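task queued by scheduler; priority normal; single chain, no ligands, no partner chains; default sampling; output format set to structure tokens
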Amino acid sequence: MRRLLLQNSVYSLIFLLFVSCKTYKLTDVKPVSNSEKTVENLYFSSSEDYVYKCQMDIYKNHVSGILILKKINKTAHRVVLTSDFGNKLIDFEISNDDFKLNYVLPDLDKKIVINFLKNDFQQLLKKEYPVTESFENENSKIYLSKVDKKIYYLFFNKENGLLKQIIYTKNNKEKIDFTFDAKKHIFADSIDLQHKDFKINIKLFQITETE
């Protein structure tokens, strides 16, 4: 049954590669002068382990487990996903420009699945963003960052300065929406990752908090 569910998910992913997503455009904002040259996502900057309950919804299939992220040097993290019973599902090391697969469960060892996880975590763990333009609305300071054909919109809460959302676009199409709930700059209590071109949603909930 598990193998069938994974195969169905892979076929659905392949099909939706041909489905375009909506063009993204900021609304109800006003431009402001650039006061920042770069902004950062610091939620994974601690050397302590980040441990989350992980829930993945891939179309009608639901997968849950434990996700452990650990910073192993200035630019790279190790990511391990296990089942709720502690069986390892996937283990990889990742940075902005490198990816090393240490282990993957045979049922998950599909190129499109690996590429999907690689891309999602490269975007989630990206730390520094050069600022191209700055905007604001009633609740947020918004920074636009252009990197090649990729554009990121980073929303920081005006009251506490915490990063609350990143919208990742490519070729002007919205790809992934990351939403964070946090009380401190270095740790997000929960993370909601929604694909806009696939029916995929990943939710992470705090298990142990880093100091």
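post-processing summary
- The longest strand covers residues 173-184.
- Residues 2-16 form the longest helix (15 residues).
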